[in-house]
Specification:
Blueprint (H helix, E strand, L loop, with lengths): L2 H7 L2 H14 L1 H14 L4 H5 L3 H12 L5 H15 L1 H11 L19 H14 L2 H12 L7 H9 L7
Length: about 170
């Protein structure tokens, strides 16, 4: 699943949470993303900035669902997960035995496959610890790291009712 598909499927409250995080923790990324997305839509950024915050977020969400905005969507998801969800990323890597830097960034090569039993146990643990929708976004993003994704992870996401984006 690509980022524009994630943004198409995800609950708007999750997008609000992500954008709130950027406004509180890295306002420059928020402003840069807004400016870039506005440019892609042939709008001046000030037109979006003058909107009420809820309307800005709705505009962001709608715009990130467009395939042409894929790169910005990728950056927003990666930035949020790597900076705002480090403990989740680290715990996921620990559960699967993937070496990482302590902040969830994989050290060395990604594994070629994922052990189904470790994956099931890790998902069972983390879906109860973290917001299941945010965790599911992470699983989709992790799955994009390998061309074609991990078959065990794809199967888990598709079959586990707890791992729904909306």
């Amino acid at each position: 699943m690509k980022s524009h598909e994630i943004f198409s499927a995800v609950d708007p409250a999750v997008v609000t949470e992500i954008l709130d995080w950027f406004r509180a923790n890295d306002r420059n990324v928020y402003k840069s993303a807004l400016s870039t997305l506005a440019g892609k839509r042939k709008l001046r950024p000030v037109f979006i900035q003058k909107k009420a915050l809820a309307d800005q977020y709705a505009w962001f969400h709608k715009t990130l669902q467009i395939n042409a905005c894929e790169a910005i969507g990728d950056q927003i998801l990666q930035g949020y997960l790597l900076a705002g969800q480090q403990s989740m990323l680290g715990m996921f890597c620990d559960g699967l035995g993937i070496p990482h830097d302590g902040k969830g960034s994989v050290v060395g090569e990604l594994p070629k496959g994922l052990d189904k039993e470790k994956l099931d146990a890790t998902v069972d643990k983390l879906v109860d610890v973290f917001d299941p929708k945010i965790f599911t976004i992470y699983l989709h993003c992790f799955n994009m790291q390998l061309l074609g994704g991990y078959s065990t992870l794809t199967e888990k996401i598709e079959s586990d009712e707890r791992l729904k984006l909306a």
